[in-house]
Every structure is written in C-alpha cells, then in structure tokens.
Amino acid sequence: MIEVAVIEDPAAAEVSLDPIRARLLAELSAGPASAAMLAARVGLARQKVNYHLKALERHGLVELVEERRKGNVNERMMRATAASFVISPVALSAVQPDPGRSPDRLSARWLLALAARLVRDVGALVTGADRAGKKVATFAIDGEVRFASAADRAAFAEELAGAVTALVSKYHDDQAEGGRRHRLVVAVHPSVDKESRP
After folding, report:
1. Residue 97 half-sphere exposure, CB side, CA atoms within 13 Å?
2. Residue 156 in contact with residue 84, Cβ under 8 Å?
3. Cα separation of 29 and 56, whole Å?
4. Residues near 68 by Cβ (< 8 Å), separated by ≥ 6?
5. Higher pLDDT pick, 102 / 76
6. CA–CA separation, 95 and 181 (whole Å)
7. Where are the alpha helices (DSSP H) in the chain?
8. Phi and psi (nearest 5°) for 77?
9. pLDDT digits over 25-84, tens only?
10. What is the DSSP letter of 90?
C-alpha cells in the first residue's frame, strides 16, 4: 500500500466522495477486511457493503488481498490501495482554479489556486514516477511562526520575499544546458487549530 494516492479521474473522485464509500476506504486504510467484517463495523448489510466495495474496486481505490473459503462462501479480503487519497483539481478540470487569472500574493483565494496547482502538478509527477518506478526529487518546509503583531507579520513577509528573490537570482540559470525548471511556492497563512477543523 502506498502512503498517498492522487485521484485524477472524475468518476473515481465521485466514488470516493460518497460518505459510505469514504468510510469504507478509511476502514480499509487501517487494514484488510471482508465485506462481512466491514458490515459489522459500519452497521450496514453485507450485500450493501459488497456493492460499494465493487464500485471502489472498479476505480482502483481498493484491491483484493486474498480470498478465503468460509463454508460455502468465498470471503474476499480487501484493502485500500493507499493510506490516504488526495483529489487532484484535474478531476474537476472544467472548473479547476487558475492561479494565472488574478495573481495577488495577499489573496487567500489566490493561495488556494496555487495550492490546487501544487496538488495537480505534484500529483502528475508522482503518478508518472510510480509508473516509471522512479522517485520525484522534491523539497518542502513546513513550520509555524507566531507573530506579535500584524506589522511583524508584514515585515516577515517582505523579508521572506527578499530572501527568496535573492536565492532565485543567485541560482536561476536560464541558459543552463540540461537544466530543469522547478516551481517554487512559499505560503504563509494562519494556522488552523485541530479542534476547530470540521
């Protein structure tokens, strides 16, 4: 099982967003189970669970681990194909956000559009790398900073922009033969407390 899978197919995204199927995916991310086992956990009839499992399996979100003979019945042990799933904006291509539409580095909506592009692009890289049996060279920093005031936050943003601009100027080489472009996204936003998340 891989750690994170990116869903790019609109039909697979729709299947994964169904509340019952999302619950089954969560259960199967924790470990393999049969329809009968899942039915007992989620309080549904085994036949209904089987119906939902088949839909998830058709879209590659769950897979067969083993078949066991139990009396007159073959029990199919299923598991999620990933520990967690991310839906790429590609799944909603007609309405996916476009960060080029209104670039405003202070806009939260523009930050969402950048984040959506990040999910789309890195999702495509991960999918392609998985198919080729390779890894993707990436780097990320995640941390928190507590500002004493809005003025300190604004000063931090200006210094950060200056530092990033200086680094880009130092290392960017448009003429480098064999060089490869990399996208850089730096974001600062208020932290969301775990307790206040839906």
Report:
1. 18
2. no
3. 13
4. 34, 74, 75, 77
5. 76
6. 27
7. 10-17, 19-30, 35-42, 46-58, 108-132, 150-171
8. -90, 120
9. 999 999 999 999 999 999 999 999 999 999 999 999 999 999 988 778 888 999 999 999
10. G
pLDDT digits over 183-196, tens only?
998 888 888 876 55
Beta carbons within 10 angstroms of residue 153's beta carbon = 15
> How does DSSP assign 96-113, residue by residue?
---TTSS--TT-HHHHHH
Per-residue pLDDT band for 160 (boundaries 50, 70, 90) equals: very high
First and final C-alpha spacing in the chain? 27
Segment holding 78, helix H or strand E: strand 73-80
Q: Which residues pair with 82 in a beta bridge?
A: 2
Residue with tokens 């088949």: 54
3-state secondary structure of 35: helix
Asked whether residue 173 carries a pLDDT value surpassing 90, the answer given is yes
Residue 72: predicted pLDDT: 81
Which residue type occupies 53?
L
